[in-house]
Design goal:
Rossmann fold, six-stranded parallel β-sheet
Length: 197
């Protein structure tokens, strides 16, 4: 997160499953954070408990939600006037989504390849937070068809952007991921409504 002038938005980025090698240095996490930063958003990446130099051990969800909550509180304290976003990739998408529905101050939720076949995202049926979902069409870990079926039941406002030919880890498609994010978010300094696509 940058020093100096307060940004219009702060975002916390959650990484994929720690028990499968997920860290804040994951390439999808890094590219998403870098893209948001280029759009003028201050981004905080962090490691869940037990990952890297972080204390503790994997808690199968509840503890990781608390880690994200603490990270969001830190970012918000640093930039108190900034709007708040949450983002996550795979397991991190579930963590971000769970926190977003518990915190009315979160303006936007960015989900990259959310694992709807591995975790329950049903709570998004009643959540009015702005939801942007970016999904690869060749993802076999979080299949597109399953995502589309779950997404159909989520409350508005929501946007689904498909990245043609992208696998779960967006191998050789990180540039397309960045373009999808930039295209869907537009100018983050302006409060533009999301739409379903």
């Amino acid at each position: 997160m940058d020093e100096g002038v307060e940004p219009p938005i702060v975002a916390v980025m959650c990484h994929p499953h720690p028990q499968y090698g997920g860290t804040m240095h994951n390439k999808v996490v890094h590219r998403t954070a870098a893209t948001l930063h280029q759009l003028g958003v201050a981004v905080l990446r962090f490691n869940f408990r037990g990952v890297g130099a972080s204390e503790g051990r994997f808690d199968n969800g509840p503890g990781e939600i608390e880690d994200a909550r603490a990270s969001l509180a830190f970012a918000s304290a640093r930039f108190p006037s900034a709007r708040r976003w949450l983002a996550g990739f795979s397991f991190g998408a579930w963590v971000a989504a769970r926190l977003a529905v518990q915190d009315d101050g979160v303006e936007r939720l960015i989900l990259i390849a959310p694992g709807v076949t591995r975790s329950d995202f049903g709570f998004l049926r009643d959540s009015i937070v702005h939801k942007l979902v970016v999904q690869g069409t060749d993802d076999v870990v979080c299949p597109l068809a399953a995502l589309e079926a779950a997404f159909a039941g989520w409350a508005e406002p929501k946007t689904l952007v498909r990245v043609e030919g992208a696998t779960h880890f967006f191998d050789r498609k990180l540039g397309e991921l960045a373009k999808a994010l930039s295209g869907a978010l537009g100018a983050p300094g302006q409060n533009t409504p999301s739409q379903t696509t």
